[in-house]
Specification:
By secondary structure, the chain is an alpha/beta fold. It is built from 14 helices and 18 strands. α5 (136-143) packs across α6 (150-162). The relative contact order is 0.09. It binds 3-hydroxy-5-(hydroxymethyl)-2-methylisonicotinaldehyde. 3-hydroxy-5-(hydroxymethyl)-2-methylisonicotinaldehyde binds next to β1, β2 and α7.
Length: 435
Amino acid sequence: MHVLSIAGSDPSSGAGIQGDMKTFNSFGANGLSVVTAITSQNTSRFFGVEPVSVLLVKSQIRSILEDFHIDAIKIGMVYDKQTVRVIHSELEKIKIPIILDPIFKSTTGGILQTASAFSDFKKLLVPLCYIITPNIIEAEKISDIKIKSLKDMKNAAMKIQKMGAKNVIIKGGHFFKGDKVTDMLLEDKKFSIFSHARLKFESHGGGCTFSAALCANIARGKKLSDAVDSARLFTVESIRNATKTGRGLAIIKTSKGDAIENQLSKAISEFCSIESINEYIPECQTNFVYSTSNPSTLKDVIGLEGRIVRTGRLVTIAGHLKYGGSKHVASAVLEMTRKFPSMRSSLNIKYDEKIIKKAVSKGLKVSSYDRREEPLEIREKEGSTVSWGIKASITNLKTPPDIIFHKGGFGKEAMVLIFGKNPADVLRKFSKISR
Ligand code: PXL
């Protein structure tokens, strides 16, 4: 998965391009960068800034877009009017979701956008974005509404949306001096509130960390409210771990990223490195998935957008992990969690009678369905066969099965699905039935 940050350089590495790359990395995304300006600053003081030439910004954007498939773009610091205009003209026609992080001033007071860039910033970049991520002060400036209450926050969000941003998240950290920090998301017409305990100290890089984490989550295909929630929790954790590397403000220390994705990614690597694993991969190849708790749609289940494929005696991971990336195995997990909410992970392997016998002998609970019994109306409905099969296999069960298999049907390959509470649990069960 590739994500692009178009932003300024921060030599202290807490914010800007350098901070974004750390956050992207924590989310397992490949971070690419277009530098719009170079700042000179440390953890105590801001020394200066110079924009990168318009021609060079343009050619950096083109060099990346012509070579990589980019899943999401974050726009951070844009110093002057010319840079605003060139970014707009280069991105105007592309279909990639844009996360716009308005940046006007550094934590230490440096000017990061000239006053004369502001009207073009509003007119050209705000309407390009899928979501904009201002804090209270930035939201006040963009909306021209003084924010003193949640109601003002709502009004500001609606006004910014009217200016063309598809969705708006206003971060409440700089306001409401109480123990809680309240962030407000306006997604289409719906408001959601997120809050967490206020952290006691100031640090450098929180805003960039949030928007970069949000960018990585959107690239992964997460639903917007889940993407915001994950980015927010990641940022809080990173601020909590901030360390005083220099003499001034503590620098954000990015933490581990999305726990669900990390667990799945680790399990997939372990699965692929098992000896002779190629023998377990079916013709239609393998997927491995893990859902959030209480999933309601395929978008709540992360899996490979692609497959684990046989390549001779080895296997290769083709594609990236993405929420909504898997259809078949994810549908199986969705159906399973409706009845047994704890069974959130699954893996499909090739059917073999010996595997089923071994599973039973090892005390695993096995269930099955017969594809020949599938009603015609289900068969004709695209994508509903798996759900039907899983439902048929668990209807009469009081406890969840570890394995569900079917022996195939006309033109359909026989298959074994292993279920578990998490990817490690699935692997543990797989190791019981494999050689
Ligand atoms: O945190 C905002 C920010 C973004 N980009 C650059 C910065 C800062 C804050 O200092 O220096 C380059």
